[in-house]
Specification:
The chain is α+β, with helices and mostly antiparallel strands. It has a single domain (4-100), classed as YggU-like (Conserved Hypothetical Protein Mth637, Chain: A), CATH 3.30.1200. The chain contains two helices and six strands. Strands 1, 2, 3, 4, 5 and 6 form a six-stranded mixed sheet that branches. A hairpin with a 2-residue loop joins strand 3 and strand 4 (33-37).
Length: 101
């Protein structure tokens, strides 16, 4: 189960990224974090930018509303998405994870 923290009209959650994948997609759940494959190399922030773009599309928010709050140079990151409730985030993840099974 993905651990989602809600605070002041935003949600935070852990992400485990896998750069240089064939396509960008949610790959499952790993130790309370959402696992995301990224079709970008971990060079000059390209993977981080791809992650921000993907999450913005996933939640239907502007890119400026998605921020990597820790782990910018790591595969394990903490991400905050503004303008999304915990219930909305849970619904999005549930639908995406159900679709992958």
């Amino acid at each position: 189960m993905i651990v989602i923290s809600a605070k002041e009209n935003s949600v935070s959650f852990a992400v485990r990224v896998q750069p240089r994948a064939s396509r960008t997609e949610i790959a499952g759940e790993l130790d309370g974090a959402v696992k995301i494959r990224l079709a970008a190399p971990p060079v000059e922030g390209e993977a981080n930018e791809e992650l921000i773009r993907f999450l913005a599309r996933l939640f239907g928010v502007a890119r400026q509303q998605v921020a990597i709050i820790s782990g910018a140079t790591s595969r394990n990151k903490s991400v905050r998405v503004s303008g999304v409730s915990a219930q909305e985030a849970e619904k999005v993840f549930r639908e995406k994870l159900k679709g992958e099974q």
